[in-house]
Design goal:
heterodimer, A: mainly beta, 7-stranded mixed β-sheet, 4-stranded antiparallel β-sheet, B: about 110 residues, mainly beta, about 0% helix
Chain lengths: ~120, ~110
């Protein structure tokens, strides 16, 4: 059974940093692209970032580009999101998402999310 | 950046009725479009990938169609558990975006 377990969320002041982790199990991690998707309270879904199976191609949404960094450690089956210079509008539930095997498109497994709150 | 527009914003229907949800892209995404269902307090669930393929375990009453810029999700015979919010998502050159969602609620 595929499991994605996010951690690292919490309360942080504007301008601060957080590092989210997503521990994956139940599948061969290093053959799937992975993504982060967020959802602000009461709002819709927003794509944050994706990276390929090797981790050497990374992609970001316009609202986080230059502030967030996605990475992965295939030896630890773990996905990361380093979030710097956080803003109030980054407050959201952050989901870790496993892609279908490329070139198929769709996120077929989602974690339960980790909550990030940016507030003074 | 490709913008997805979903219509209607809200669809009020009764169990047993047919639901037709639309997703339109600001430019062609070929068939790189997925549909998700989200219920309150839950993570989204993949329904349709590559515009028209049902994901594993998804009932046959869910179907997707379209290519290029216009896509449709059809729920042929609404069950009580289908009342939820539905999102489309596109991928173009690895960049992605979601539509704003369509809420399907009970009439």
């Amino acid at each position: 059974e595929v499991q994605l377990l996010e951690s690292g969320g919490g309360l942080v002041q504007p301008g601060g940093s957080l590092r989210l982790s997503c521990a994956a199990s139940g599948f061969t991690f290093n053959i799937y692209a992975m993504s982060w998707v967020r959802q602000a309270p009461g709002k819709g879904l927003e794509w944050v970032s994706s990276l390929n199976k090797a981790g050497d191609d990374t992609y970001y949404g316009a609202s986080v580009k230059g502030r967030f960094t996605i990475s992965r450690d295939n030896s630890k089956d773990t996905l990361y999101l380093q979030m710097d210079n956080l803003r109030a509008e980054d407050t959201a539930l952050y989901y870790c998402v496993k892609d279908l095997r490329f070139p198929l498109f769709g996120g077929d497994s989602w974690g339960q999310g980790t909550l990030v709150t940016v507030s003074s | 950046e490709i913008v997805l527009t979903q219509s209607p914003a809200t669809l009020s229907l009764s169990p047993g009725e047919r639901a037709t949800l639309s997703c339109r892209a600001s430019q062609s995404v070929s068939n790189s479009l997925a549909w998700y269902q989200q219920k309150p307090g839950q993570a989204p669930r993949l329904l349709i990938y590559d515009a028209s393929n049902r994901a594993a375990g998804i009932p046959a009453r869910f179907s997707g169609s379209g290519s290029g810029t216009d896509f449709t999700l059809t729920i042929s015979n609404l069950e009580p558990e289908d009342f939820a919010v539905y999102y489309c998502q596109q991928r173009s050159n690895w960049l992605r975006s979601f539509g704003p969602g369509t809420r399907v609620d009970i009439k």
